[in-house]
């Protein structure tokens, strides 16, 4: 057994490979901790007739609830579906007892959740296999949305590409993971995302078209389908971005965040994965901010995370989030500083071998000057460096206080760059 496979475990229900530290299978909800104890098959899917172990929560193939078998002993090896032979997948964030998640991976959810390559012709891309999550493919939800394919899955939801039959418009449908339905906290968080995102109406924020539930059980959110790429992919493919590109993206993000902040919504998990660059006819980098799933209201909201529990992504998390201090719009601005640094240099300011080491650097270390990472970038001066350093102050009171204030300085810095070139 090689080192890669030894670091993985196999879900005994669906056969998918998962990281060794996984506690749940993101495809069928199998409790991998209980799975280690073994035992006879004790559940059956009444829809497809497949047998599953007692620790499976729902059928991995048609998403039906499983019923406990009484007084029966069945050989799992003879009845369970064959294990898939596809590539290994990453597990979703590990659920806690309260249903919260701690995201310590930049790729917890695939970038393709809302996007497609710009040259995608949007035709004949329906999935044909009968793997997990395929039960909805080819089905029509609420008589309106014809599900075409699976775009990705994460700890909270499965995301599908669909077509609005009457309007002939491609949409994205985010359906809550079936195995989370029994968790009140998780359902509350998903419904909260629907309500918060639906309140936002801005050209630089992904639009929400509809909400509903499948058979009155599984809540879903319908959003616009973006043709383009995630900012994370752009940085990965191109490395450091030009001044003008960086400034234009930040300016658009500021406008979108200004709208969210004006009605009291903080994103709390801004990162390049959650910024999509839409390929429009007049420009290739129209910004769409997505995933307000762990967003928080500034005033009067019920807190859905336990005291002391981190929610966010280590590379972009603000110091106050680690101290369990009150967060506000300046927390989003700190993440903007990390992203500006990354866009101009191709790397984040704080790196480490573990999430813990990165978090400690956010708390204790000052970010390196851009000139230290890219000496060539300062040949004619860099008006963006003081902006980034102000955004990355440890104390929120020392940062920019609003997205508008940040946008004005970025616009001025961009003008300085353009005048020097002229």
Summary of the model, kept short:
The chain is an alpha+beta fold.
List keywords for this structure.
422 residues; alpha+beta; 6-stranded antiparallel beta sheet; 28% helix; disordered N terminus
Textual characterization of the structure:
The protein has helices at 3-6, 32-35, 76-79, 184-199, 231-238, 243-262, 319-322, 329-345, 355-364, 370-373, 385-391, 403-421, and strands spanning 8-10, 17-19, 41-45, 51-53, 66-68, 115-116, 140-141, 145-153, 157-164, 169-176, 208-214, 218-224, 226-230, 265-266, 275-278, 286-289, 296-297. It has 422 residues and is of the alpha+beta class. A six-stranded antiparallel beta sheet has the order 7-8-9-10-12-11, with helices on one face. The chain has a four-stranded mixed beta sheet with strand order 6-13-15-16. The radius of gyration is 23 Å and the shape is globular.
End-to-end distance: 61 Å
Overall pLDDT level: 75
Category by helix and strand content: alpha+beta
Number of helices: 12
Strand order of the largest sheet: 7-8-9-10-12-11
| Largest pleated sheet | 6 strands, antiparallel
Helix content: 25-40%
Q: What portion of the residues fall into strands of 2 or more residues?
A: 15-25%
Shape summary = globular
Give a count of the beta strands, DSSP E runs of length 2 or more.
Answer: 17
Rounded radius of gyration (Å): 23 Å
């Amino acid at each position: 057994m090689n080192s890669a496979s030894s670091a993985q475990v196999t879900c005994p229900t669906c056969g998918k490979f998962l990281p060794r530290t996984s506690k749940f299978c993101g495809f069928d909800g199998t409790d991998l901790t209980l799975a280690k104890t073994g035992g006879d098959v004790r559940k059956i899917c009444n829809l497809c007739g497949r047998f599953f172990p007692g620790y499976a929560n729902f059928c991995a193939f048609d998403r039906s609830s499983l019923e406990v078998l009484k007084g029966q002993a069945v050989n799992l090896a003879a009845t369970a579906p064959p294990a898939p032979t596809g590539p290994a997948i990453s597990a979703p964030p590990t659920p806690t007892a309260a249903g919260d998640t701690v995201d310590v991976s930049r790729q917890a959810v695939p970038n393709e959740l809302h996007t497609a390559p710009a040259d995608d012709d949007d035709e004949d891309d329906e999935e044909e296999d009968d793997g997990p999550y395929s039960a909805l493919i080819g089905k029509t939800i609420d008589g309106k949305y014809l599900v075409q394919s699976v775009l990705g899955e994460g700890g909270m939801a499965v995301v599908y590409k669909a077509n609005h039959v009457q309007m002939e418009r491609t949409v994205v449908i985010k359906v809550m993971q079936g195995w989370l339905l029994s968790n009140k906290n998780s359902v509350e968080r998903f419904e909260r995302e629907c309500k918060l995102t639906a309140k936002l109406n801005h050209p630089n924020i992904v639009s929400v078209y509809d909400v509903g539930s499948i058979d009155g059980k599984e809540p879903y959110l319908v959003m616009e389908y973006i043709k383009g790429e995630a900012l994370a992919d752009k940085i990965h493919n191109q490395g450091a971005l030009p001044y003008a590109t960086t400034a234009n993206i930040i300016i658009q993000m500021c406008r979108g965040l200004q709208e969210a902040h004006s009605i009291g919504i903080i994103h709390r998990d801004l990162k390049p994965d959650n910024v999509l660059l839409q390929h429009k006819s007049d420009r290739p980098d129209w910004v769409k901010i997505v995933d307000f799933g762990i967003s928080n209201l500034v005033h009067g909201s019920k807190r859905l995370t336990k005291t002391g529990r981190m929610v966010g992504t280590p590379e972009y998390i603000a110091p106050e989030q680690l101290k369990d201090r009150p967060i506000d719009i300046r927390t989003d601005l700190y993440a903007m500083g990390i992203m500006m640094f990354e866009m101009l240099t191709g790397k984040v300011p704080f790196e480490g071998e573990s999430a813990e080491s990165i978090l400690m650097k956010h708390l204790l270390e000052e970010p390196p000057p851009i000139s230290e990472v890219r000496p060539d970038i300062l040949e004619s001066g860099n008006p963006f460096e003081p902006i980034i350093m102000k955004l990355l102050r440890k104390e929120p009171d020392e940062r920019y206080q609003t997205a508008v204030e940040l946008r004005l300085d970025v616009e001025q810095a961009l003008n300085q760059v353009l005048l020097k070139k002229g």
